[in-house]
Task: structure prediction
Amino acid sequence: MPTSRPTYVFSDFELSPTRRALLRGGRAVPLIPRYFDLLVLLVERRAEAVTRREIMDAVWSDVVVSDGALSQAIRTLRRALGDDPREPLFIKTVSRHGYRFVYAAVAEEADGRPAVSLPPSVVVLSEPAAADAMDLNLDRLIARGPLDDEERREAAEALHVLGTAEAMRRLSDRPGRAQAMALLRDARWDVPGAAPVPLGGLREAAAILRWLLELRLRRVVRLASRRWASAAAGAALFGLVGGVLGGLALRFGPGSTAANGLPVALGLIGLLVGGLGGLGVGAGLAGAEALLRSFRDLGLVVGGAFGGAAIGASAHLVASWTIESLFGGDLSPVAGGFEGLVLGAATGLGYALTTSRAEGGMASPHGRARAVAALGTGLCGALAAILLAATGSYLGAMSLDVVAHAFPRSQVGIAPLSRLLGEAAPGIRTRVVISGGEGLLFGCGLALGLTRRPRRDS
Result:
C-alpha cells in the first residue's frame, strides 16, 4: 500500500510526492514522470548540491541516455517554475558538480489526502488548464527546427502526459503533421503509460516512418557507438580470461609439451577473437536497441545475428586468405559467418529476455539485475555454442586446433585438455565443454559491456 510522504510548499507551489502532483496556485503543472522525480529529489536534498552522477543514477537508473537529457530536464523544470538560470530562485547550477534547490523557505506539511495509485504518467488538470497546456505544447511540437531539438522532444513528452489521443486529434489539421507524429511515436517510450501512436490508415505513414528513422539514426550515432565500444571491450576482456585459462590447462594438462608462454599467447588470441566478435554482435545489438523500439526483442535477435554473421564471415575470409597465401593451408572448417550468426542471435535473445523493457531507451540494469542479464546472456550463448559443437561446427579453440594440425611442429593442440576431460583424443565431450565455455564467457562479457553505465563527472 502506498505510504504518505510530506508535501513540500514553496513560493506559490505545492509539491506532493504521494499524489505525484506539482500545483501552482491550486492548478496542476504537467511534468513527465522522470522530471517530476528529479524535482522531488532536488527538493528532498535541498541542503546539499546533488551531483550529476547521483541524479542520473536515481532518475535514469534503468536506462542510458545522452548527456543532454539532464540539461533538458533542468530547463523544463525551470520553465515550469518560472525560474531564471541567470538569477535562480529555485534551481541553481553548481559548476562542475550538479544542481541544488536553493529556495530558502520550504515548508513540509503532512499530506492529509491518501496516496493514489494512478499510472505514473497521469496528471489531473482542470479542462481550461489542460486545453491551454495542450495548445502550447502542440505549437512547440510543430515549430520549425531540427528534428531532435530538445524543446520539440519535451513538447512531445508533455503531450503524452496531457493525453495522446487528444494530441493526435488536434494534429489532424495542422501543418508539419508527419514530423510531429514521428516525434510523438518516438517519445511515447519515455513516458510510462503513454498511449500508442498507430500509423495504420494514415495517408502520410511513409513520411512519418522516414522521419522516425532519421530521428533514431541520430540516436544511434549519439548513444549506440559508446555501447558498441563497451560491448567489444567486455567481450575482449572475457576472451582474454578464457584464453589464459585455456592456455594454463593446455600447459599443465596430462602429456603436455607446450611452452611456458602458451597461456599468454592464447590470452592475446582470446582478446582479439572476443573483441572482434564483440564488435560485430555489439554493433548489431546496440543499433537494434536504438532503432527498433517497437520491436525491441525481435530486433535484438536479428541485430545480433546480422552483426555476428558479418564479423564471422569477414574474419574467416581474412584469416583464410592470409593462411592460404602464406602457408598453403586450408581453413574451410574454421568458424565463419554461420557460427557468428547462430552465436549472435543466441546472445541477442538472452539479452532481450533478461533486459525486457516496458519503456524505450538503452537498458542499463545495475547490481543484481545486471548480473542476471550477464548470466542469462552467457547461458544462451553457451547453449548455442554447444549446439554448434554437437553438429560439427567450430568456434575459437576448436578452430585454433584445426589450424595447429596444419603445422606439424605446433604445440597448441588441445589433446592435454581432452585427457583432463576423460577422452584420449578430442571428441564430442571436449568440443561441447570448450565451446560451451567460450559461448558463456562471450555472452557474459558482451552483456556486461552493453549494460555498463558511462562514467560522468561528479
Observations:
- The two ends are 36 Å apart (CA to CA).
- The longest helix spans residues 205-252.
- Confidence is low (pLDDT under 50) at residues 115-130.
